[in-house]
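Entry 0007
Protein: Lipoprotein
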Amino acid sequence: MKKLFFLILTIAIVACSSDTKSDHDTVRELAKKDIIEKLDLPKGTEFSDESVELTTNPADGDGPNVEYIVKVTVKSQDQSGSEVVKVHKMHYKKKADAEAAKDQFELTFFE
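Output (structure tokens):
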């Protein structure tokens, strides 16, 4: 009986810890798609892990009302060939009532 309890507890802990990682990856990929759409960038545009910074709002903590803040650094060139670096900030809210995983996060703020 103890072994069964330990096995179920282990599975629950692994499932909870991997869910947070999954949320971060989902928000990161969603932010990459949204920034391409919002800035009308070419479809082949790719971002490195260093150019996409993801944090959560510390006031909310864990739970259904977590706010994810994504800072995306976009590097480009102006007509004279000088490098232009712009940082865009996006806020995502996790929706508790979303049916599909792709609809789970909502862009609430873009600057």
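Curator remark: The mean pLDDT is 79. The two ends are 55 Å apart (CA to CA).
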